[in-house]
């Protein structure tokens, strides 16, 4: 059997040994591999492993699944292939040490799993997702210590990454940025998952 080495923006964030049967990948908590990524569908794809072969099936995902830069619906995975879902890159590796049990033989004691829970949660850096406006559907990863949301003719909104979380600051007044359909508090607001920020006619949802 094989395994997946998972990276987000060039950094390794997980390594998962594939199991016999189905391994579901998506954004929903019920998946076997959870990718907290706005570009990934709720149940994005499934990898079916039979014996030593693993086959990936895209489950009609919104943004598609790409292997070696080609959008695929179904593909038997080969050692070294690169799978892209949203902002995540999954590298498939054959691992001869991960052999399925053979009938009539007592399986060797398994090595300690890389991940203890059934569900592997891979949390990307917090991001904003445009849910209304000209850039609808576009994610904005909050990878910098300060991110500015421009507001032509008015004051911009700024999001600062702090030790306590992500702090939103903006001026109060007509046409100024709003938070959850209200003015941004004068001292700023530590963003919570699902908060809605409106700037210059575009609404962003904060996802963490």
UniProtKB/TrEMBL annotation:
Region annotation Disordered: where it falls in the sequence: 95-114
UniProt cross-references to Gene3D superfamilies, sorted A to Z: 2.60.200.20
One Pfam family this sequence matches: FHA
InterPro entries, sorted: Cell_Proc_Reg/RNA_Proc, FHA_dom, SMAD_FHA_dom_sf
Domain FHA: 23-72
SMART domains recorded: FHA (SM00240)
Lineage: superkingdom: Bacteria
Protein name: Signal peptide protein
């Amino acid at each position: 059997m094989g395994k997946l080495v998972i990276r987000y923006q060039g950094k390794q964030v997980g390594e998962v040994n594939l199991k016999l049967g189905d391994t579901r990948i998506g954004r929903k908590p019920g998946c076997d591999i959870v990718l907290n990524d706005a570009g990934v569908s709720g149940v994005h794809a499934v990898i079916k492993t039979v014996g030593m072969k693993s086959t990936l099936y895209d489950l009609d995902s919104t943004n598609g699944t790409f292997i070696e830069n080609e959008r695929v619906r179904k593909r038997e995975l080969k050692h070294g292939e690169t799978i892209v879902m949203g902002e995540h890159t999954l590298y498939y590796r054959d691992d001869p040490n991960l052999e399925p049990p053979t009938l009539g033989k007592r399986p060797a004691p398994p090595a300690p799993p890389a991940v203890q829970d059934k569900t592997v949660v891979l949390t990307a850096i917090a991001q904003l997702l445009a849910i209304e406006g000209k850039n609808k559907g576009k994610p904005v990863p909050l990878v910098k210590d300060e991110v500015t949301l421009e507001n032509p003719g008015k004051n911009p909104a700024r999001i600062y990454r702090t030790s306590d979380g992500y702090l939103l600051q903006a001026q109060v007044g007509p046409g100024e940025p709003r938070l959850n359909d209200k003015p941004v508090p004068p001292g700023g607001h530590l963003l919570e998952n699902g908060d809605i920020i409106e700037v210059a006619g575009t609404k962003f949802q904060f996802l963490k």
